[in-house]
Amino acid sequence: MLSAKVRRKIAPSNGETDNSADKQEQLLLSATICNGEDLGPFVRKAFASGKPETLLHNLRHFARSKESEIEEVCKAHYQDFILAVDDLRSLLSDVDSLKSSLSDSNSKLQSVAGPLLTSLDSYLEAQTVSHNVNLALSLIFSCIKLSELCSRSNYHLSRGNFYMALKCVDSIETEFLDKTPSSTLKRMLEKKIPEIRSHIERNVSKEFGDWLVEIRVVSRNLGQLAIGQASAARQREEDLRIKQRQAEEQSRLSLRDCVYALQEEEEDGLSGVMGDDGKDGYGNGGGNGLLGFDLTPLYRAYHIHQTLGLEDRFKQYYFENRKLQLTSDFQVSSMTPFLESHQTFFAQIAGFFIVEDQILRTGGDLISRMEVENLWETAVSKMCSVLEDQFSRMQTANHLLLIKDYVSLLGVTLRRYGYPVDALLDVLSKHRDKYHELLLSDCRTQIAEALAADKFEQMLMKKEYEYSMNVLSFQLQTSDIVPAFPYVAPFSTTVPDCCRIVRSFIEDSVSFMSHGGQLEFFDVVKKYLDRLLSEVLDEALLKLINASVHGVSQAMQVAANMAVLERACDFFFRHAAQLSGIPLRMAERGRRQFPLNNARDAAEEMLSGLLKQKVDGFMTLLENVNWMADEPTQSGNEYVNEVMIYLETLVSTAQQILPVPVLKRVMQDVLSHISEMIVGALLGDSVKRFNVNAIMGIDVDIRLLESFADNQAALLSDGDAKQFKTALAEARQLINLLLSNHPENFLNPVIRERSYNTLDYRKVMTVSEKLRDPSDRLFGTFGSRAARQNPKKKSLDTLIKRLKDAS
């Protein structure tokens, strides 16, 4: 305050008006000193100008001006100072008395406080000792805790509880390492803690390495089990569909008194493979002790590396090793046929991705979904490549089917875990044609062997199971009544053998087409079934008929077989529809003609041809007919009697094995041939002429044949019996014309269409001319009779003339 006041009092005066430079400089110097500013510029200026005396003079002047001010201040305060001194002197006596009093009090205090000070010193010393003891105790407790943690860490290490050991080590490092009073112990801990962590990492890595080796075997077993359960589930579905088809068939047959209950068994799933997800921290999240599907070493290693702060490194290490394992799984041994190793190959891959799916769902962030998808894409690409290569080499349909079935089961198994398998199914569909071509080739060989072993004898069945196996299983029966045994079937062993081959073809074809991603495949199965029947079986039967059939009994057996095969073909298409899951009504809606038409026609033609040859042997007796007989025969000519005996014997034998339609067609063809032979005999050069008596004898022969046809009414319907007689129409109409009183009616279109529609006018003209022979006694004349002409002869002449004019 005084300083501030002084400064205000010593402000430079502006009263002087001296304009000299020294005065101004003196004023500036005074102002600078009063303001506490730097005097350096003044000093430099003084020495620079060479006049430091002026600066000294100004400084002395300023000092003198300040001395006067000091004096004024002192004068202003001196009076107060004198008064204060007087007050102090007045207090001096009081101070002396107080001093003596204090001295006495001090003496008394010293005498009294001496023992107390001694006690205080003892107390302070005891307090110091107590503090040191407490500090020592706290350090001992800390060392005890540290020793306990070290002991616990060693215990966990010895028991393999690495995580707990790491937690102990972390506690030692964070809580005790910096507070350890022993430098030796601290150095030991600083050295051992990294060694312990390194030891734990090595042991966990070794366990993880052992797990990597073990999981390959486990994956293969796991894949085989999973695919096996998928196969069992598929079989249950097939059994259920069979029961459903049986129920539908029973319903279709209107067996309303039966009650059918279809019970579907519950799927076990992969209960034996996958367990509960709720496990402890190291639980496998779905392991199975029986299979050794234990993820504990993996999760333990992952957790330990997380605790060590090495999570990212372990995740990368795990992914790279699993990728290498998958790559090694892709190796296909060239020393072992793929047919023998394909199950192991695909099961290994299936088990790999089942394990990865479980790890993805329960392993936290150990592996990402993107990484699993990348591995799966690699696996699918490699599997497709392997399948393409192996399928291209295979030349056996059954081998291809076995691999296809296993691959489809692999697809079903892995689809349950969310893996896309469309690429694998596309490869299977791509080789559909090759498989069926190989299957057709196998069936062609089997059918050829079955036909070559046929003895053209009716099949004998001694037991009911044989009947069920060879007849009922192919729906070849014509009646629901089980026959008595031993039973002689109308067909030979070729029929059930071929049926088994075709049924096996259908089942193999359906097996290949089903479970391949294509829902409706009946049209494909039907197409290849048509090819099997029309190209393979039909051609084989044609070859058999043309090369191996040499007798009537063989031809008859083949024809009987063809009739049974016609019923079997209906069963084949129904069976294919049922296996394909197509309603029978829809399958029957798309039915086509009998695919073995060529073989059936050839068999019937062969039978007819052989029968005609037999008949031709009897028809040679036409040469013994007396064409100029004096009177007509009443019992038929010799040839027709022989033919009748043969035909009756033939029919009685044929009706045992030949179906009625086949017998009708064959016999109709034979009768038509007999009719042609009769007409041919009348047209032939060997018969130069004949009379009415011979024609009447032929008429008797034809009536005998017609009566034979009528006698078949019990075997055939009335309409079929009439058709039988139509086979003799040409011979019958020709004889009727020759015996007619007005043969020229043949020229009437209406009468011709009604009564002579099968006759050719050229044949009529040739035969009529032979009846017109002048040497014929029927038209001979004597004497006056020459003037009269027989009306029938006149009509016949007119017919001949008109026919010649028309030709």
UniProtKB/TrEMBL annotation:
Keywords: Cytoplasm, Exocytosis, Transport
One Pfam family named in its UniProt record: EXOC6_Sec15_N
Membrane-crossing segments per the record: none
Cellular compartments annotated: Cytoplasm, Cytosol
Region (Disordered): 1-22
Record-linked InterPro entries: EXOC6/Sec15 (IPR007225), EXOC6/Sec15_C (IPR046361), EXOC6/Sec15_C_dom1 (IPR042045), EXOC6_Sec15_N (IPR048359), EXOC6PINT-1/Sec15/Tip20_C_dom2 (IPR042044)
Biased composition regions of type Basic residues, renumbered to the chain: 1-10
Residues covered by the Exocyst complex subunit EXOC6/Sec15 C-terminal domain: 424-770
Cytoplasm among keywords: yes
GO biological process, one term: pollen germination
GO CC terms in record: cytosol; exocyst; membrane
Domain Exocyst complex component EXOC6/Sec15 N-terminal: from-to ranges: 58-227
Top-level taxon of the source organism: Eukaryota
Matches recorded under PANTHER family: EXOCYST COMPLEX COMPONENT SEC15B (PTHR12702:SF1), SEC15 (PTHR12702)
Family, per entry: Belongs to the SEC15 family.
Function: Component of the exocyst complex involved in the docking of exocytic vesicles with fusion sites on the plasma membrane during regulated or polarized secretion. Involved in polarized cell growth and organ morphogenesis. During cytokinesis, involved in cell plate initiation, cell plate maturation and formation of new primary cell wall.
Protein name: Exocyst complex component
Organism encoding this protein: Salix koriyanagi
Source organism phylogeny: Eukaryota, Viridiplantae, Streptophyta, Embryophyta, Tracheophyta
